[in-house]
Design a protein that fits this description.
The chain has 356 residues and is α+β, with helices and mostly antiparallel strands. It contains ten helices and nine strands. It has helices at 3-22, 24-35, 48-54, 62-79, 87-105, 133-149, 154-188, 243-247, 250-259, 317-332; strands at residues 195-199, 206-213, 216-223, 234-237, 263-270, 273-280, 292-298, 305-313, 349-351. The strands form two sheets. A five-stranded antiparallel β-sheet has the order 1-2-3-4-9. Strands 5-6-7-8 form a four-stranded antiparallel β-sheet. Helix 2 (24-35) packs across helix 5, helix 4 packs antiparallel against helix 5 and helix 6 runs antiparallel to helix 7 (154-188). The radius of gyration is 23 Å and the shape is globular.
Length: 356
């Protein structure tokens, strides 16, 4: 999630835990503490793939943040003027404020290394988009009211309760969408294929489903307001014949650890040479994904030579604006068809429903 959301969530947690005792200070300290994990964005690992895959790494680890929160609690208990606050209360204040950050990030698509340094894939169970005004606004209002009134407990507690209720709604919405998706998956025989169901930008009413089956990449949109109409699946090629070449590269393997199997591969001509491109199909939309990487180059017919460092390619923001306008119409009307195949070149399209 964005830094503002993390800060006001931390403020709500801090105010709920120690607002009665510390007032505005609990809200402000909770906001600062909760924003700390995202300081890792200032770390440059010297490589495009590493910069993306190391983000939400050690600074978002449950182990690291619990340890840091414990240290801050010990320091507060020893040096803070408020001598009547117990160590357990300080511990809950710092640890919960800090852990609110990665636990919220887990509910987005990007992936969070909750269990760093354990060698496991990043955790993600997306139920909210990385920016969702309906989630953020109650927390922001609670933050402003707490600072204005000086009562650091009541408004933060209400803001936290409303935001949690919204997350519960989002989880229920995802269950409904996945249930509606099942008949379409069964029709194509891909019930057991890896799937990713996530909300579209800025809302939890319209959801995007991505399914990977070998070289086939399926896409569909499912809205809570769609009624009983079955979702239509568009099918794209994934360039799976290049996957083995990509996985033979260190950064290709790293990217697969981060996003696999939701990666698309292609070869482009750049500066007179063939370039192996890997694209994360989770983040963005068909035709203008947010994260594409140049991994290796070669002369035609030769072996791939890894790029050191790898390069992140610039997305097409014009197409983003065009698609967002169509998405907004699609949220409230299933008749406002949005065919993602309209935004990609024909060579990537394997099959398009008649409705498109």
């Amino acid at each position: 999630m964005d830094t503002l959301t993390h800060a006001v969530l931390g403020a709500a947690v801090g105010g709920t835990v120690l607002g009665r005792r510390l007032g505005r200070k609990a809200v402000l300290i909770g906001a600062v503490v909760a924003a700390l994990p995202d300081l890792d964005v200032f770390l440059d690992y010297g490589d495009a793939v590493l910069n993306v895959t190391e983000h939400r790494g050690f600074s978002h680890s449950v182990f690291v943040l619990t340890g840091l929160g414990t240290l801050l609690a010990l320091l507060a208990r020893r040096f803070a003027p408020a001598r009547d606050i117990t160590l357990g209360r300080w511990w809950a204040f710092f640890v919960l404020s800090m852990l609110s950050h990665p636990l919220l990030d887990v509910l987005t698509t990007y992936g969070t290394q909750l269990w760093w340094p354990l060698d496991v894939r990043p955790s993600a169970w997306p139920v909210v988009f990385i920016i969702d005004p309906l989630y953020t606004l109650p927390l922001l209002a609670a933050f402003v009211i707490a600072l204005a009134s000086g009562n650091g407990f009541r408004a933060p507690a209400w803001g936290l309760a409303i935001s949690c209720a919204y997350l519960a709604f989002a989880m229920l919405a995802k269950e409904v969408v996945e249930h509606r998706l099942e008949p379409a998956l069964a029709e194509h025989g891909i019930e057991d294929a890896p799937r990713l169901v996530q909300p579209t930008p800025f809302n939890t009413l319209l959801w995007r489903a991505t399914i990977i089956d070998g070289d086939r990449h399926y896409e569909t949109l499912v809205g809570l307001l769609d009624g009983a109409e079955a979702p239509m699946l568009e099918i794209f090629h994934r360039g799976a014949e290049l996957e083995e070449d990509a996985l033979a590269l260190e950064m290709g393997e790293r990217l697969d650890w981060f996003a696999g199997p939701y990666l698309r591969y292609e070869v482009r001509q750049r500066d007179g040479r063939e370039t192996l491109i890997a694209t994360d199909v989770r983040l963005g939309f068909p035709g203008f994904y947010a994260f594409s990487y140049a991994l290796a180059t070669r002369e035609e017919g030769e072996t791939w030579q890894p790029l050191v460092p790898t390069e992140m390619l610039t997305p097409d923001t014009r197409a983003d604006r065009e698609a967002l306008g169509q998405l907004a119409a699609r949220v409230f009307s299933p008749e406002a068809r949005l065919c993602t195949s309209d935004f990609v070149t024909d060579r990537w399209v394997a099959d398009v429903p008649e409705a498109c």
